[in-house]
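Title: Prediction job returns without error message
Component: structure pipeline
Severity: low
Priority: P3
Assignee: unassigned

Description:
Job completed but the reporter wants confirmation the result is attached to the right record. Sequence as submitted:
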Amino acid sequence: MPANAPMLRLDESPALCSTSTLRHYHAYGVSICSELPLPLPEIREDQGPSLFELEIRASNEPLFGVIPEEVTLKHNPFSGLDFGHLPDGSTYARWDDIGEALISTNGRSIACHPFPQTNSEAFYVYLLAQALSFALVKGGFEPLHATAVALDDQAIAFLGDCGFGKSTLAAAFLQAGYRLLTDDLLLLQNTTRGILAYPGPARIKLFPEIAREFLAKAPSRVPLNPETQKLIIPLDYNQVCTDPALLTTTYILAGGDDVAGRDIRILPVSEREAFVMLLRSAFNYVISDPDRLRRQFEAAQALIGTIIVKRLFYPRSLEHLHLVREAILSDLCAAKSESNACKS
């Protein structure tokens, strides 16, 4: 960028939230003021306090011009993300064929620009997950890469690397009448009641075969990006949980050689193993300053002993998924019976 080019700056506080043209939404426990119409529920009068306040601005012009010449963008092949940290502490993020975002130093403001011909639903997935993760981490939060479903008065979460089947397993629960809490990004809060898990957008990302099997009646589906067959499946009100739920159990999904065979196994893990697995499930690895790393350790340690962490092994085939679902429900029932017996 030329030395005399104007630098786009983001306010460090959500000052525009008082502007009448902004829309007010709520997701992941975050209050969002946005110039864009987002696929999120609007803030209710009985919503309660938010964990964080965020402003989203729409830029009609490309944002790449704000990058100083001395900043070299790095590439994350797993998410298709190009990113760079600017001298003022803000972060630039770009996804090929999707769009770009500029996240302020303290995470309270995001400027975004979808690329031409980008489907809005696809752009919002990246904006409300990966771009938002930068804002949350900058704001002092530690989101997890997880999918969670609500079961009556509790929530369970599935953790694992990309492609391990977190969303697929959640779809099997949706088919049985349970509700999705969040897909992809999970934000938690440690309270006197326990660990609260907050709801995300009312959508899930699935491959076509899985969508046909478990959500055949979904009204529409949009490709996530040109490089994958995954689809964005919008969910209706009856399929999602819109209030925070207490997280009781987390299942770490095994992958690779660990899924060989036809056995379904749910195994406890030691506190040390659980700690390492939770660290590996952090959302957004590209912010790695010492303060962030310390928070990651503290957040993982806070979960140990508060929630149950187990490993889940199962064959990756459609015909086994209903058996996996029933095995998880049986495991939860057994744990609840054991807990009640201990209390009595």
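Comment from assignee: result matches the submitted record. The two ends are 69 Å apart (CA to CA).
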